[in-house]
Write a sequence for this structure.
């Protein structure tokens, strides 16, 4: 099976280890992974701040980059939700306003082929035990896009629960937003920081060594609070945990 990796601009710029972990994980499971060089930002920042028409060139670019791949895998529920939920809307609106039916067709073609990483592992590959080893106590924060937009449900927890050596503890108030919310954190910094502090307080109360998530945008927000507080807890993307093995532990 051959898939395309949509690494996302956040991971490309700030968390390249997550992208590398996804490739290691998928290749270990027998998947051939391509990285189309034409990919860039999916357009979510523009779309979320009201610049809807300015996101259209990025829809076209993304659709071109991943044309021909039956599966496009991304370690981001946020970006997966952007493509799956909003690309078809952008395309339909552009077509209705006479800016090209090809945009609507491209968006509609790409959307159902995009999978968040845990969806791909559980729903497409049909695995929960990926052969990972991570001897630490972990608590999991579900991001809003993954939880409410994509409906990931218990897929991430099932994957974590199958990791050898990992002790998974429940996060109180797990379904509450961490406060990042993309541009919400920029427009409402005080509220965002307060929400993030609440999330970190819950995480620290679990006694976990690692606060895990499936969106590095949320984890960047939470990690900033952890670093400022000097807390003995680290934020880590789920892909890096799943990629770790006894032979190749996380470094």
């Amino acid at each position: 099976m051959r898939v395309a990796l949509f690494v996302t601009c956040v991971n490309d710029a700030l968390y390249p280890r997550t992208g590398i972990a996804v490739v290691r994980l998928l290749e270990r499971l027998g998947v051939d992974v391509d990285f189309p060089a034409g990919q860039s930002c999916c357009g979510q920042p523009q779309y979320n701040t009201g610049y809807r028409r300015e996101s259209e060139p990025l829809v076209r670019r993304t659709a071109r980059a991943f044309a021909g791949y039956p599966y496009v895998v991304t370690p981001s529920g946020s970006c997966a939700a952007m493509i799956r939920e909003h690309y078809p809307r952008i395309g339909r609106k552009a077509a209705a306003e006479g800016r090209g039916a090809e945009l609507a067709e491209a968006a509609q073609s790409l959307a159902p082929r995009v999978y968040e990483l845990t969806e791909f592992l559980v729903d497409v590959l049909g695995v929960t035990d990926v052969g990972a080893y991570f001897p630490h106590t972990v608590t999991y924060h579900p991001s809003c896009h993954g939880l409410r937009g994509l409906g990931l449900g218990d897929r991430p927890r099932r994957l974590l629960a199958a990791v050898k050596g990992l002790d998974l503890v429940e996060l109180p108030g797990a379904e509450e937003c961490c406060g990042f919310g993309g541009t919400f954190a920029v427009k409402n910094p005080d509220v965002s920081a307060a929400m993030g502090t609440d999330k970190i307080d819950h995480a620290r109360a679990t006694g976990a060594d690692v606060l895990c998530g499936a969106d590095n945008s949320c984890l960047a927000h939470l990690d900033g609070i952890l670093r400022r507080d000097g807390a003995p807890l680290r934020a880590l993307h789920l892909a890096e945990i799943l990629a770790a093995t006894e032979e190749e532990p996380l470094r």
Observations:
- The first helix runs from residue 9 to 14.
- The radius of gyration is 18 Å.
